[in-house]
Structure prediction request, 488 residues.
Amino acid sequence: MNRACLFVCLTALLLAVRAGNAQSALDSLLNMRPHAWWGGMVVEVNSGDTLFARNAARSFMPASVTKLFTTAAALDQLGPDYRYVTRFYADGVQSGDTLAGNLLVRGAGDPSTGAPGPEWMDLFHAFADSLLALGIREVRGDLIGDDDIFDDIPLGADWSWEDLSYGYAAQISGLTFYDAVVDLHTHPTAPGDRGSLAIIPESGDYLKIDNQTLTRPPGQKLIEGHTRTPGSNRILVSSQVPVGRTDRETITVHNPTLYFVHALNAVLASRNIHVHGQLLDVDDLDMPPDYSGSRRIASHTSAPLSDLAAVVNKESHNLYAEHLLKTLGRERPAETEDDLEPGSAAMGVEAGMKTFSDAQINTGRLQLVDGSGLSRKNLVTPAMTIALLRYMALHPDSEVRDAFLASLAVGGQDGTLETRFPQGTPGYGRVHAKTGTLGNVSSLAGYLTPNHGPRLAFVIFANHFQGEHASIRTIQDSFIHQLLVLYP
Prediction:
């Protein structure tokens, strides 16, 4: 018994000395940028012992660390095996190869339909195959996209208007396609001449692209220029591209639901299936569709939520995060005094409060307004973030726990940490975390796996700094390296 007590006392003393050293050493690192507003916390996951704290109870803009809250609540309440099912219907009467009625696509809020990649057209070809299997080649009615699973608010609260043309601020819809963006590649031609544009995917007449690009001589600076007129799909490309370079940009589209419908119609036409009516958003109808009299002819089931959460956290995918938040608000609407709509971001936040409360977070001080972290109205504390990380690392459902941990980027290996903590540094393969970046905001939060000690949870917030983010990230990386020296 005496030896056991001595061992416990010596261990506690060592941890206390280490904690004191950690506080001093890590404070010194953060003080290298004294004009930044720093907040941070480090705890041992199992015991909850605090090894470092700085402004831990103060509120910070978390940027994309917000996604930890979104994915934690979604996995906790919906489960890692949750899947979206997008359904394809026909109404009316078929006579021979002609359908005297409409085609309808009923969205489920799946963010991954027609995702960029080599298989983005597979869903549309599968729908075409289903029509051809029924012998349908002529559709006398309309092709309708139904996005009513979500509300009709396409943007997050207080997103900056300067972001809205660019792919990371894509519009949110219950029916989406190709991440609700278009990829524009400007290739130079001859100096002084207009460049050539490659548009992926081909959008037919849905997008109006104004090519005002200019080819510059070799060796000159590439000057980017892309603008989408608000509320429209008119895109001005005015980049100046030197010979030998290519300008690549991802631009948002207006009304992802109609974007989906136009893309589907193009594939149907390529398969000799002709829609003679209009291409419509469900909001264009006087009355919502009555599916009770319609025939379901195809459906598409998404990858499991665990896979989608990994896209959110590893790649910091804003659109996926917003879809998960609204899905939570649709599937788990909370009772509230406010008149919140199921399928809205506000209801998603309210639903998420159950998870955050279970994590012992003071939800009265937690302010979240979107799922991705693009809004500067999101405010969390380092202590709240640590509480969430501990809750998910110790989650009673091992499948939820494993899915959350596996969703994080790994230092030096993948996602937004692929080029940080490279091989040969202490953090390689041992940092599992979420990054966050906005103007004057840089965040990093997640877990460290020491070789010999217990798992650590950490968070580092930097707000209100001026200048480049690179020096802030260098300090964050040094912070992690110092922790791994103190707790190998």
User: Anything to note?
Assistant: Residues 42 and 458 are 4 Å apart (CA to CA). Confidence is low (pLDDT under 50) at residues 3-14. The chain is about 30% helix and 20% strand. The longest helix spans residues 2-30.
